[in-house]
Specification:
Layout: H1 16-24, H2 33-39, E1 49-51, H3 74-83, E2 88-92, H4 98-111, E3 114-118, H5 128-141, E4 145-148, H6 154-157, H7 161-185, E5 188-192, H8 199-209, E6 214-219, H9 230-237, E7 241-245, E8 248-254, E9 257-263, H10 272-282, E10 289-290, E11 298-300, H11 316-328, H12 343-364
Parallel strand pairs: 1-2, 1-10, 2-3, 3-4, 4-5, 5-6, 6-7
Antiparallel strand pairs: 8-9, 9-11
Helix pairs in contact: 3-4, 4-5, 5-7
Length: 369
């Protein structure tokens, strides 16, 4: 892993958007329709969607804001996503009744949005009935791709390799239980790289399950926490990609390792254009779903002994490569922070970040259609 796979640093001076703005304001050069068209990225024929976790603050049970009230249900979330220009949304479908699923479908079709679901995998046979009901409701609403996750930050969740190994074995059992039901209903289950599985784990999983109904939800930034290069992650996982969680990342070294933070698109170091191109090369129908989580930076304590408890085949080479990447791309500005903001200020910041990302995706990543 080397820092060369990250997004090239911009040259000093005005960027493309600033040049266009200055010219449009009378910078002395005629701006023709042809030159504007040449400046814009080629349209991908689709708009950016929004993952429900982008609204983690607004969804909180502690939110009592009148200006930014919590969404009562998926339909309210959908209406809001449409109002700010998103092309679709990804949301949990657990416990949806058929009547509600039909209401979601009708409203979604009226607005012209796509829907992807999130679903909890079965852990045992006794859970299959619940799982199939959720699958059926999701399909009724129009979701044919469902994101699944089997763990979280392994370096926080487990204090031994045995604990991690047990979770991995349980995950394989869940995959085997879920696959026949996914095949029956012809829906795709997309496993996310969720700061739990490294690249080799996920490639092994895809090959082991060997099903057209199981693939990948590629999170563009999560694998950095496991000392993996984001572009290498995309290269390895994009051949099996079903959907995405799109984010840009800022990093900064601290005493025990490095800080990792979602930042508005274009303000981090990820080469999102290359990631998008890799995904569309493998799956032209893939949707790009924004997961702009507004929060304090996460600590990746890779200089501590506890961090390494679940890793047996990762060592100095991965750590050295990760730290080179962090140092080469260290944020020149403070990473986002919300704990110093009042409740409504946090909500305003969250909404502003999401809207900025949608505009950036349209202007710089070709997310129009």
């Amino acid at each position: 892993m080397t820092p060369r796979t990250s997004k090239p640093r911009p040259k000093e001076g005005l960027n493309r958007r600033e040049c266009i703005r200055n010219l449009a304001l009378g910078g002395g050069v005629a701006l023709t329709a042809g030159s504007l068209a040449a400046a814009r990225p080629t349209s991908r024929g689709k708009r950016m969607g929004i993952v429900v976790y982008s609204y983690s603050i607004r969804r909180s049970s502690r939110n009592s804001s009148k200006r930014y009230p919590p969404f009562k249900d998926a339909i309210e979330l959908m209406d809001h996503c449409h109002s700010i220009g998103a092309g679709g949304f990804q949301v949990g479908v657990q416990g949806w009744e058929k009547a509600f699923a039909r209401n979601v479908r009708d409203r979604r079709e009226e607005l012209g949005l796509y829907l992807e679901g999130q679903i909890r995998l079965p852990k045992e046979r006794e859970d299959l009935s619940r799982f199939e009901q959720d699958i059926s409701a999701a399909k009724e609403a129009g979701a044919n791709v469902l994101r699944v996750a089997v763990g979280g930050r392994r370096y926080e969740q487990f204090d031994s390799f045995e604990g991690w190994k047990g979770m991995k074995e349980q995950a394989w059992e869940s995959f085997r239980l879920a696959e026949p039901i996914a095949a029956k209903h012809r829906v795709k289950l997309a496993v996310e790289n969720h700061k739990d599985w490294r690249i080799d784990d996920l490639v092994e999983f895809v090959r082991g399950i060997s099903s057209e109904w199981f693939g990948i939800c590629l999170d563009t930034g999560n694998s950095i926490a496991l000392l993996e290069d984001p572009l290498e992650t995309a290269r390895a996982l994009s051949p099996s990609v079903f959907t995405t969680h799109v984010k840009d990342m800022g990093v900064k070294e601290y005493a025990d390792g490095f800080l990792l933070s979602e930042v508005p698109l274009g303000r981090g170091f990820l080469d999102l254009k290359s990631v998008f191109n890799l995904c569309e090369k493998s799956n032209p129908q893939v949707q790009f779903c924004l997961e702009m989580i507004t929060r304090d930076p996460l600590k990746v304590p890779c200089f501590t002994q506890d961090y390494w408890a679940t890793f047996q085949d990762v060592g100095a080479k991965a750590l050295a490569g990760a730290m080179r990447m962090v140092r080469a791309n260290a944020s020149q500005h403070p990473l986002p922070n919300i704990s110093n903001r009042p409740p409504d200020g946090q909500l305003q910041y969250e909404e502003a970040n999401i809207r900025y990302c949608l505009k950036y995706a349209e202007d710089e990543l070709g997310m129009t259609g």
